[in-house]
Amino acid sequence: MPVRNRIAEMAEEVSGWRRHLHAHPELRFEEYETARFVAEKLRAFGVDEVVEGVGGTGVVAVIEGRAPGRTLGFRADMDALPILEATGLPHASTVPGKMHACGHDGHTSMLLGAAKYLAETRNFAGRVICIFQPAEEGGGGAKAMIEDGLISRYDIAEVYGMHNWPGMELGDFTMRAGPAFAAPARFDVVLTGKGGHAAMPHLNVDTTLAGAHVVTALQSIVSRNVDPVQNAVVSICGFQTETNTYNVIPEVVTLKGTFRVHDDEVQVQVRRRIEEVVTQTAAAFGVAAEITFLPGPPVLINDAEAIAHAAEAGAAVSAASTDFPPVMGADDFAEMLRLAPGAYVLVGNGDSAGLHHPEYEFNDAVIPFGMSWIAEMAESRLPLSR
Q1: Any domain includes 386
Q2: 305 and 366 share one domain
Q3: Where does a domain end: 294, 317, 345?
Q4: Rounded alpha-carbon distances, angstroms, from residue 74 to 117, 132, 189, 289, 370
Q5: Does residue 239 contact residue 211 with C-beta atoms inside 8 Å?
Q6: DSSP string, 26-43
Q7: 191 and 175: one domain?
Q8: d(CA 374, CA 122)
Q9: Rounded to an integer, what distance in angstroms lies between the CA atom of residue 385 and that of residue 376?
Q10: 45 domain residue, yes or no
Q11: 147/33 same-domain check
């Protein structure tokens, strides 16, 4: 079954919602106007229940089917990124330095459109829960919603998420069973030595030199400690001294880094080695090291049975594959998948700029495909008795 006729009729209206959201981006846990817009639309559709303020600024909608049954959840993320938009589009961001550069405006609009369709048709047995999540971009929004009782309160039996993917054929779907996206752990390192005049390094304890060796040494973890058949990456993305001149050795250097893996045990191993490498390398230069690990979501693991159902629905709409290679990107939808079986699928955005790029634009032509997939999943996983 291709894109549904009723959904095709709605596509332009939903695209209008998407462009409105794109023009008014809000960062993590600041999605007040976005949440208000979503809640107003949902109430206008006649869904059975709308709950605001879930996990801070999240919104949940309940749509009852024509008969009792299980509960399916569908999640869309709502937050934007702190990026200065460079598209020059008529609906470009009206908020300097904030931009929907990852397509969350499209994800939210597709789920809104699907909610309208499902509220009209209700051709399923059970309940559909539409989850509009805040703070996916590093803010822990999924965990916040879970802590507010999302999964337990609605007794969600399966949960599904969808993300657009630039460079993939427009409207096609891809996914994989098992580990698919990485656990995006982050850490800060503070190195403290003894600052002083650059012409007298023997009187100082050089934190810059120690920091340079720490960065280099950390690269040995993946190459020499992690099993070569496992996926892992360690990257230092920030190196900052307290000085900005030519002749002062700084007393303090700070590093910011991330490590990403596809296996829980490997994550524990890499974290332990980061602690050992940083502290011992710094100590070799007489520098004290303090490490702070920041909380983050786990590895995103798709349920094999759910992937089979998601792929079948994708093939019913356009085309679908289950051979998507694992990537080191991340999504905190992984938190929900640890509590309910489900799947995270990707839909092709066509030839566009990459995610998180200032020239990225969600392709409105994706909308009817995404909406149809959600509708197909709801009706196939919650079938009415014949």
Answers
A1: no
A2: yes
A3: 294
A4: 14, 9, 38, 44, 12
A5: yes
A6: --TT--HHHHHHHHHHHH
A7: no
A8: 13
A9: 16
A10: yes
A11: yes
Mean pLDDT per 10-residue segment, the chain (386 residues): 87 98 98 98 98 98 97 98 98 98 98 98 98 96 97 96 98 98 97 97 97 98 96 97 93 97 97 98 98 95 98 97 96 98 98 97 98 98 88
Number of domains in the chain: 2
CA-angle at 165, arms to 161 and 170, nearest 5° = 105
Quick one: tokens of 364? Answer: 């409105």
pTM above 0.90, yes or no: yes
Taking only the tens place, the pLDDT of each residue in 136-175 is 998 999 999 999 999 999 999 999 999 999 999 999 999 9
Domain hosting residue 316, numbered range: 5-180+299-381
Residue after which a domain boundary falls, among 294, 322, 347: 294
Residues in CB range of 312: below 8 A, 6 or more apart: 320, 380
Place of tokens 């810059």: 208
| 329 within a domain of the structure (yes/no) | yes
> Between vectors from CA 8 to CA 110 and to CA 67, what angle results, nearest 5°?
70
Q: Which residues of 211-235 are buried (b: 16+ CB within 10 A; e: fewer)?
A: bebbbebbeebbeebbeeeebbebe
For residues 151 and 187, membership in a common domain is answered with no
Same domain, yes or no: 29 and 113 = yes
The domain that holds 55 is classified in CATH as 3.40.630.10
Q: Of 21, 134, 40, 22, nearest to 78 (Cα)?
A: 134
Q: What is the DSSP string of 229-260?
A: TS-EEEEEEEEEES--SSSEE-SEEEEEEEEE
Q: Are residues 148 and 26 in the same domain?
A: yes
Judging by beta carbons within 10 Å of its beta carbon (0-12, 13-18, 19+), is residue 65 exposed, middle or buried? buried
Q: Both 216 and 365 in a single domain? A: no
The CATH code of the domain that includes 223 is: 3.30.70.360
| Residues paired with residue 183 on neighbouring β-strands, in sequence order | 261
Please report the pLDDT score of residue 385 as a whole number: 80
d(CA 331, CA 67): 33
Same domain assignment for residues 277 and 306: no
Beta carbons within 8 Å of 76's beta carbon, 6+ residues apart: 104, 107, 108, 110, 111, 112, 130, 131, 132, 133, 161, 162
Closest CA to 31 of 127, 112, 104: 104
Nearest Cα residue to 27 out of 112, 86, 104: 104
**260 Cβ contact partners less than 8 Å away, ≥ 6 residues apart:** 182, 183, 184, 185, 232, 233, 328, 330
